[in-house]
Fold each of these.
Amino acid sequence: EAALKSSKVIFVIGGPGSGKGTQCANIVKDYGFCHLSSGDLLRDEVKSGSERGKRLNAIMEKGDLVPLEEVLQLMKNAMVSNLTKTNCFLVDGYPRELEQGLKFEKEVAPCTNVLYFDVSDETMTSRLLERGKSSGRVDDNEVTIKKRLQTFHNQTKPVIDYYKRFGKVCQISAESGIDEVYVEVKKFMETKQW
Ligand code: AP5
């Protein structure tokens, strides 16, 4: 518990297709953080074929948020099982609503910083439609992408506003190419002693 509470946690937030996963992979290479994606953890559960996985898949297929407790538990377990390797975590795709952030900070660890990738809806949509051709993801279709964007604006944007009040948000425009965006990410990473 104490080890968990003293870990460094960067919440990585951005709309669907903003490049969270892509940039996290870059950070892992250069800074050795442990990357935990809530979406990947949920999709692993779906792949297991469990009843729980089927319930989760039905929600993700629609672009809605899965219940807080389900995702919080997955994140916490994944952090605990990686603690022997590192205590620096990129928490990608979580929190997606304010309550998730508050509960995480109370029950898991305080948020050190928030990395927010700011991208227009048009750019996110075209990236996801492109990826959808080969990703096999049930939510990379026009209807669900629209819903995911709505969910982001209505439920996740308030999380960013909340952490801005504490000066914890590093906002990066992620409209440009992957390498250009990573230049900005690096600038942020270099300002800290991890
Ligand atoms: P999740 O898996 O988190 O999906 P998402 O947020 O919609 O984001 P993506 O993983 O699709 O995109 P990304 O931002 O990582 O971008 P990527 O790097 O892949 O969540 C899926 C679902 O799970 C949710 O809808 C919800 O139902 C549920 N869920 C997850 N977390 C939850 C939570 N906390 N609470 C409740 N429910 C939760 O890039 C996308 C594409 O663009 C790639 O092809 C990439 O190559 C390309 N690309 C990236 N950057 C650039 C760039 N700069 N220029 C050009 N192309 C780029």
Amino acid sequence: GYHRVLEENRKLYNQVQDLKGNIRVYCRVRPSLGGRSDFKSVVDSIEEGTITINTPAKYGKGSRSFNFNKVFGPSSTQAEVFADTRPLIRSVLDGYNVCIFAYGQTGSGKTHTMVNILSDFYKLYKIVSHAKYLDKTWTKHTGPKDLTETSQGVNYRALSDLFFIAEQRKDTLQYDVSVQMIEIYNEQVRDLLVTEEIRNNSQNGFNVPDASLVHVASMYDVIDLMKLGHKNRAVGATALNDRSSRSHSCLTVHVQGRDVTSGAVLRGCMHLVDLAGSERVDKSEVAGDRLKEAQHINKSLSALGDVISSLAQKNVHVPYRNSKLTQLLQDSLGGQAKTLMFVHISPELNAVGETLSTLKFAERVATVELGAAQVHKDTSSDVKDLKEQIANLKAALAKK
Ligand code: ADP
Ligand code: MG
């Protein structure tokens, strides 16, 4: 009897999970960087999808909990974080559009999650060049084997996986992969893949038609391009003004798969976005360029929030055109597209104000997911009810 009920509950629970919409929100907490053993994190606890923050007096002393699809604690590895992203890579190859964001204040770990290949990039590049030469430790499609458990971020892992799956499917589907890399700074789009050698390869139908679209055949090519993009991005930065934290950067992957027998073609696209720092800038303290940057960032991040809420409400008019960022992502937000937001927070007390507003923003996005599922009942309380029922049944079973 009990087992049947348990099974039934599990089925119901899975159904509720399936009803969820296409926006998932994961929270990641950066470790403390000081390395002090007496460090006191503002994070009180992490339990599956729930994170609880200790709020200091200034924010109403006590604690506040936030719910997400998952929370990754400070000791989570790059591989663990990527594991949940994997199904999305498969979706791209199945012809879906996918969008993966990193959101959070400057210094909270966005670039670490997405593009960390760059921090040990030159080391990696040396190994790659060497392996290319030896052609032994290197597997053409997936990258150097011995580096798979290191610090590379989502961008690198996503492309590596993509090539891996494409290779597995090659007898039935032939894939063609090309990438774009752009930066949006003060509402201006800059192509990060320009060189003398790469010809501007514009095609109709892409959202940034003027940005170079470069064909890539393997991880060799991808690494070359990541290096080029990184170099070009650094050009705009000065010592005083870390431009990378005030601009959005986006790696876009276009995939075309041709069915070997029927000749039918499917298209998928994936945007991997490292957003500008979400911190609010104290208007009394900034002027000139800094103020202009802050206004542009605020504008584009709130435009993103508006698009997401509008999608959730099933509005006929979705305000994609209010910012360059949402324009770029238009085809990959809403509809059949799948969206994942990594929300980053710092564990330090001096960042708690920003941490709380980041979590509030993210929570708003996370609840949108239930709205987008088009169910006319409160699924979050359903899940809670079912969890309670399961707990009760487990307790009853334990007593037997
Ligand atoms: P953001 O891009 O949000 O400004 P970064 O990714 O540059 O932040 O991270 C700030 C610093 O913290 C960097 O030195 C980075 O290497 C480090 N860092 C961030 N997240 C982690 C993590 N999960 N583990 C170890 N170091 C991290
Ligand atoms: Mg960054």
